[in-house]
Structure formats: structure tokens, C-alpha cells
Amino acid sequence: MTVTLADVAARAQVSPATVSRVLNGNYPVAASTRERVLRAVDELDYVLNGPASALAAATSDLVGILVNDIADPFFGIMAGAIQSEIGGPGGRAGGERLAVVCNTGGSPERELTYLTLLQRQRAAAVILTGGAIENEAHVSAVAAKLRKLADAGTRVVLCGRPPAPADTDAVALTFDNRGGGRRLTEHLIGLGHRRLGYIAGPEERTTTRHRLEGHRAALAAHGIEDDPRRTVHGRYDRRSGYEATLELLRREPDLTAIVAANDTVALGACAALRDSGLRIPGDVSVAGFDDLPFSIDAVPALTTVRLPLAEAGARAGRIAMSREEPPPGGIATVGGELMVRGSTGAPRP
Amino acid sequence: MTVTLADVAARAQVSPATVSRVLNGNYPVAASTRERVLRAVDELDYVLNGPASALAAATSDLVGILVNDIADPFFGIMAGAIQSEIGGPGGRAGGERLAVVCNTGGSPERELTYLTLLQRQRAAAVILTGGAIENEAHVSAVAAKLRKLADAGTRVVLCGRPPAPADTDAVALTFDNRGGGRRLTEHLIGLGHRRLGYIAGPEERTTTRHRLEGHRAALAAHGIEDDPRRTVHGRYDRRSGYEATLELLRREPDLTAIVAANDTVALGACAALRDSGLRIPGDVSVAGFDDLPFSIDAVPALTTVRLPLAEAGARAGRIAMSREEPPPGGIATVGGELMVRGSTGAPRP
DNA sequence: AGCACCGCAGCAAGCGCTTTCTATCCGGAA
DNA sequence: TTCCGGATAGAAAGCGCTTGCTGCGGTGCT
């Protein structure tokens, strides 16, 4: 029914071994033979059996990419960049790699499940993107998995994630969330703000914690008391930003600035502010994080911290494919750039 | 080195066959035996070898999802919904399916390449999302591939795509782009607009053509001449919307409304209008398409056509997993809902 | 008491490919 | 002319798993 290597071999009048070698191009085959084989492949419309090949060669050409939310451009941009780098040449049979994008939805269980599934597929590489969950049991479970993957020859790269334990052999490209958060808040303080609300992401996530720490560091550095009532936790989505803003306003109506965990949350905050009859930045300044494409289209355009998502993703992809040297020590920090735009201004006097 | 089925069998004192059956749960195994095997699996930390299993069983648990642009929430939302449906129960070994999200970038070649790669992996199902490319050679090449996939037992579902030739056996969930486009433009006409600009997507794509046809049908139905100078083609991104708007304004400064190919393009159009000193909708009304999450946060909020992306994706996923009956005839049309918001209003008199 | 059967476990034959090792053919060196 | 080595091609042994078929006790029936 389906065409196999043997069929091609028969038609080209060579042995299956030769066909395999032509297809993998890693063994000398006479040009004339090669051509004959290629013609047979073409005529028969032969497609290699991936699983069989993976089994025999003990490697596959799948690359796993774990993301927290595939509908979020933050991850989409990274995933796209990674994928564009892993497809290229540099491997077996045409060098085609298949990216497996796994949507964990932020759930620790699913993260682990996907890691197992990838291990089961004998993935060539695995790239974990976005913040990690901070839960001792889970962190060590993930570390154990990563170690196992590495043992099985799977290259592991973290993109936008804090480093894993060194013995996992995982390369980490970390975003400087702390530094970005700090610069952002300092920008606001420089503008004269003293009463700033902060809408944080979900607790137990490194990204959330680091950005918040940066914010607090800025406050502390300028002698501003950090009233815990000015911080609200929520999800990384618009709705959450909307509700958190209302809550913040209820608690402290005379806030002059709101810093959001990310751009999406900031957008929700803007909506809540507008619905409350407040002007941006006239009454309240708003700042986001990430600089997703839509942020510049907000009205007013969002002041935020630009993270080089695509660049980081591309680099992670290259490292995963061994087409670029890992950074020394296996860890590199990727900085963010403060983008000052219309949504922040001096507070009303 | 790595643990195999045989190791588990040895430890549980049963034959490999029994272990396999316990793991696949499709053959009667005595409870006590099952338990013993499961314990061994656990103690040995055994992970099934996917490729080997796929080879022997002639099926894999990979599901391919083709998208045009993974960084675009339009696709991200569908992909996420699909993935949440295919992970569930209903299959072998824990029912875990691995979603392979492939980013074609809108390139015909890559689309074909990915289809081949998926065929090579013997994917359990393949779901193609978004509009198709309208190029005779490519369409028939894709149809041929789909046919081959179907022959190999891969279920094929199109989500948000026009139906493929009937002999491909592909189930299609099509968006009513034409109807949505028509209603959107009729809304504008109803408001009193007579000079409407249209920013279309890339040529040779079904989505582009259908939306444009709907627009034109509305114009025709109301006796409005369709001046070709009022239509500009571009990509489905913000930048393109920005530039196209400037071009439209140059050609015809007194347009009173601009209909964009999608929300992202509409956002770019809004930015261009603002930069040109025009008010929305005071001077020019703007409408989008899709109703992506950020559209409601635009200022003013975008009038658009809401496409039930998540619902359609979920349904496609279920159909692909045979957990839902395909629609009669294998084709279903999914309608869009007109969302009238602040970006459209009556034209200045 | 004898027989058919059922429930459960094992045997063994692959699934389609890769790869080591071996065989062959050839040109040129001796 | 004989012999040796390089360049190619083939034979065959798996890779780790699934599954059709066989085998073996024990239950229920007559």
C-alpha cells in the first residue's frame, strides 16, 4: 500500500541501504547511483517513515517549544522566531525540523506532561519559554525531567526564563525583568509620581516576582514607602488589568500612576481608567511591559519596556540547533529597553 | 542505558506483550498483573519510546496544526482551542496527543513542506487554519497531499478555510467572510457613508477575496459605484494598514470611511488617520474584522465582525479526534457577528 | 464426570529504517 | 602481470514496540 524504502530500492535496482544513504547524505554514493535513487524516490512519490527512521537512528527531528499561552503574542512572537531558526539546514534529510508548540496554559501539570511527551518522542531539542512557576516541588520535578532529557541527548534551552539548576545542562537566556521593572518605575518617579499602583501577575511566577522586585527597588531607592495596598495580583490578561485597576482606585483614589505587569494588563487598566472618567496621562499615568506590537497603537501609546522577543527566540533556536555557541556559563541576560510614550506624564500638581 | 519495555517486563515478571497491553489498555489484563506492571513502570521511571510505538502500531499521536502566522492572535486563539481539545481522553496511552503547530508564514512552499513532514510523521490528524492561497498549481498540490494524508489514515480538518475538493475527504469549517464583509459595509452604508475606502489583504488568498466580495456586494446592493481606486491591497499587518490608509487618503482625501481587512490592519489605519489629523469617527469611520481581544481596547473601540475563533477551533479539534460528528456533507459555515462600536459613526454632512 | 469455553498471558513475527561489517570492483604501483 | 588500497554497494542485525495466534488453567454446562 504505502511506499517503503525497499520499494524505492527495488525500482532503483540498489539495496535499501544505498537508498537510505542517499537520503541521509552522510556516506559516499556514486553520483550516477544517487541520481537513479532520487529519480525512483520521485517517481514513487516516496515519503520517509519518520517513526521508523527515528527508531533506527535513535533520534528524531522534532523540537519542542513550551509556551504558557499560545494566544498571547508574547509567546507567539518567540515561538515564531524559534521556528524560523530551527527549520533551516544543518541536519539530516533536508534538515527539516518539526516544531512542536505546546501550550501549557501556565499549568505545572501540563508542563510536566508535555516534557514527558517530548521525552517520549525523543525530541532533538526542547525550548521552554516564559516565566517559570515557583513551587519547590514543581521546580525540582522540572529539573529532574530536564536532566533526563539532557541525558537522552535532547538539547534544552530556556528562553525568557531564569536558569535551571546547573546540573541540568540547560542553556538559559533570561530577560532582565528586574532591571526593566526598576527603570520603568524610576521613569515614573522621575516624572514626579509618588503614589503608584502596581498590578502584578499571578503569584508564584518568576516573571511576576522579578518585575515587582524591580518596581520595589525603584521605590526604595527613592525613599518611597511601599504600601502593600498599592499592589494587586491578577492574571496576565486584559480583564485582570481592568478589575485590578478598579480595585486599586477603590483603595486609593488619588493614585497618579499605575504600573502593569505587562502590556495586555495595561490595556485593561487603561480601559478601566477611561470608564472611570479618568484621563491618561492627565489624571493617571499608565505603563506596561513587553512592548507588544499593539502597544504603540493604544491611545495614548503605551510607555513600556521593550523586550527583544524575536531576537531572543531566534538565538534560543540557534543554540538549540547548535548553530550558535551557548553563552559562557550557559547563562545570558537579555536586557529590556525603556520606551517612553504618551501614556505617562507628570502627575497633576 | 535507557529503560525499555523489556526491562519493565522483566521487573514485573511478565512478558513484554503484557506490559504493552497494560500501557495501551486495550486488552484484558488481570488487575493484579496490571498493578504489578504499573509499579514496575513507576519504579523504573519508564517512558515509552514514541517512535518505536508509532512504527509498530503504524500510527502516531501527533496532530499537526498549520497556521499562517503564529504571532498573530487570530491563529493563536484557534491553535489554543484546538490544542485544548486534542489533549483529552479518547485515545491510546493516556490519550495524550501532541500538537505540532507549524508556522507557514503564508508561504505556499512551507505549507507543502509541513504537510510532507506531517505525512512523514504519520500524524494522527492535520488541521489547516486560516485562508488558503488561490493559485491553481498550489491548490491542486495541496489537494493531492491531503488526499495522500487521508489515504494514510490521517484525519484532515480545515478550520476557517474554504472546503477542499470533495475527494480529499477533508472536513471544512468555513468562516462566512463574505457575509460578514457584506454586513459590515452595509452597516457603514446605513450610517450614510458613500465614499468608503477598502484595505484588502494580500491577493491570491481566499479570505482576502471573500471579504472584499462581501464589501462589493454591499456597495452594489446600494447602488454605490465601486471605484477601484478606493481599494488597496496589502499584508495583514499594522504597518500595511498604516501605509494603505495614507495611500487611500492621497488618492481620495474626502473618504468618510475605511474598511480594513482585519483588526490589525484597522489599528494601523487608525494610527495613520490620527497622524493625519483626522478624527475617528468624526472625520472618518474605521471598521475591522475578526474582533481580536485588543479591538475593544482601541480608542475608540473598533467596530468589527466577531469570528468565533475559539469555538471553531475547539470544534475542529473535536472533529479531528472523532469526538464530534463532522457536519453533514463535511462542510459547515461559521457565521460572524457584527459588533458595532465607537469607531464608526455617521459621516460629516 | 466430561466437555466446551472463557479469561488471561506468552511467543514470535514483524513495522521500516539505519549502520556496521563485509564483499566487490577498479586503478595504479611494484 | 600481480597485488594492494580506495571507493562503493550489499547483507544482515537490530532499534523498541504491537498484536495475531497459541496455550493453559479453571468455570459452567450437560
From TrEMBL, chains A, B:
Q: Name one GO molecular function term.
A: DNA-binding transcription factor activity
Residues crossing the lipid bilayer are none
| Superkingdom of the source species | Bacteria
Keywords, comma-separated and alphabetical:
DNA-binding, Transcription, Transcription regulation
Q: For the HTH lacI-type domain, which residue ranges apply?
A: 3-57
Give the matching InterPro entries. Answer: HTH_LacI (IPR000843), LacI/GalR-like_sensor (IPR046335), Lambda_DNA-bd_dom_sf (IPR010982), Peripla_BP_I (IPR028082)
Return the CDD domains for the record: HTH_LacI, PBP1_LacI_sugar_binding-like
Q: Which SMART domains has this protein been placed in?
A: HTH_LACI (SM00354)
**PANTHER family in the record:** LACI-RELATED TRANSCRIPTIONAL REPRESSOR, LACTOSE OPERON REPRESSOR
What is the protein name given in its UniProt record?
LacI family transcriptional regulator
> What is the originating organism of this protein?
Streptomyces minutiscleroticus
